[in-house]
Design a protein that fits this description.
Layout (H helix, E strand, L loop, with lengths): L3 H11 L4 H4 L4 E7 L4 E5 L2 E4 L7 H14 L10 E5 L5 E5 L9 E5 L8 H6 L5 H12 L4 E5 L5 H9 L8 E5 L11 E5 L13 H8 L6 E4 L6 H10 L6 E5 L3 H12 L8 H11 L2 E7 L5 E13 L4 E15 L5 E7 L7 H6 L6 H13 L1
Parallel strand pairs: 7-11, 7-12, 8-9, 8-10, 10-11
Antiparallel strand pairs: 1-2, 1-6, 2-3, 4-5, 5-6, 12-13, 13-14, 14-15
Helix pairs in contact: 1-3, 7-8, 8-9, 8-10, 9-10
């Protein structure tokens, strides 16, 4: 068997045209749209480069090497490849005949830097108040979903929130491709596995989640919720497994719950819709919404409490605790905005008090002002 490091070194040789972008920390995505069209995303903006590959076959050679290193195959019968590069970057590729002008390759790069609350405040992704609130919510073991679109910073936020878990708690991390790095001593990281060519050996996120429940977790962190495991996660939340963290793709907090229920219905367990919605509303405490804005910046846009589910109106009851307000573009084309408290008094206060914690003073003051003016 050829050693893995040989595959890795060979792969980097095949990817030599884009090697400078792999080494550039400001580049978050490399998009190869065939041999002569290579784009990158740098600081939230997409730009075309002058880089070219010698031929489509040169790209295919790189993809075959990446597939071998991952124990997979890519060919006309299996024209889609998901793999990981030596530096942890995630590679997704589609080859001909499915990709008529391809191969098409997207390489999602992940920052090697550890994001902290202070760093995100410095980048203006969130405010000191939001940082204090998120820290409090994590320590109080509320169940938090981080939602957003592609490239909105969900994984960075999940890494950050997982890092706020107290040192004396046992954390189990479950994901498809290892991207979450929790710098704690007591962390168990598990990764799903696709079936082999003979459809054997598959281990799903759902399998791993069920196993984790029997391993005495204090916290369960799900890299991305994307299928029937959503029902197991919700049922774990309502049965006493507090402090769960996870991400999913959704644009607004209400969409997050709707998408979660849709994925829960992909499960092999049939459940009437209203009881399912009641469980979701009971299990999920907080939705943290992230977005990539028009100017390319990544911002926290909502911290929203899930209050419950109103059967009469057939709607989830949500209350924004923090919400981003927008004020147009400045002279440099940057979108002006501010993440501000709404003045609501959160319903999760008893959970904070039960953990010996308090709501940030600025939120308490905003709620008091709202009461006086109402």
């Amino acid at each position: 068997m050829i050693p893995r490091h040989v595959f890795e070194q060979t792969l980097l040789v095949f990817l030599e045209p884009v090697r400078p972008f792999l080494d550039d920390p400001a580049v978050t995505e490399i998009m190869i749209n065939g041999p002569s069209r290579v784009y990158i995303e740098r600081k939230g903006k997409i730009e075309r480069t002058s880089v070219t590959f010698q031929s489509a076959e040169a790209i295919l050679c790189a993809l075959r090497n990446a597939a071998q290193a991952a124990g997979k195959h890519v060919d006309e019968e299996r024209p889609i490849l998901e793999a990981r590069l030596p530096d942890g970057s995630r590679l997704e590729a589609v080859i001909p005949p499915i990709a008529a002008d391809g191969p098409f390759v997207s390489i999602r790069r992940f920052s090697q830097d550890t994001f902290t609350l202070g760093k995100l405040i410095e980048l203006d992704s969130l405010t000191p108040l939001a940082a204090e609130l998120l820290d409090t919510l994590v320590r109080a073991k509320l169940n938090i979903l981080i939602a957003g679109g592609t490239g909105s910073g969900k994984t960075s936020l999940l890494n950050l929130l997982a890092g706020l878990v107290p040192d004396d708690e046992r954390i189990i991390v479950i994901e498809d491709s290892r991207e979450i790095q929790v710098r704690r001593d007591h962390v168990l990281s598990m990764e799903s596995r696709a079936a082999d060519l003979e459809e054997r050996g598959q281990v799903s996120i759902r399998d791993l989640f069920r196993a984790s429940l029997r391993m005495r977790p204090d916290r369960i962190v799900i890299g991305e919720i994307r299928g029937g495991e959503a029902l197991d996660i919700v049922q774990a939340m309502v049965s006493g497994h507090g402090g769960c963290l996870g991400t999913l793709h959704a644009t607004y907090p209400r969409d997050t719950l709707t998408r979660l229920e849709t994925m829960a219905m992909m499960s092999d367990v049939e459940m009437p819709l209203v009881p399912l919605r009641v469980q979701i509303a009971s299990g999920v405490n907080i939705v943290v919404q992230a977005a990539r804005l028009q100017d390319g910046t990544r911002k926290l846009t909502h911290v929203t409490e899930v209050v419950g589910y109103d059967v009469a109106s057939n709607r989830y009851v949500l209350e924004d605790v923090l919400v981003r307000r927008y004020a147009g573009l400045d002279a440099q084309g940057r979108l002006q905005s501010a993440l501000v408290p709404t003045g609501v008094t959160p319903h999760f206060l008893p959970q904070l008090e039960a953990s010996g914690l308090r709501l940030p003073a600025e939120l308490t003051a905003a709620a008091e002002r709202a009461r006086r003016t109402s």
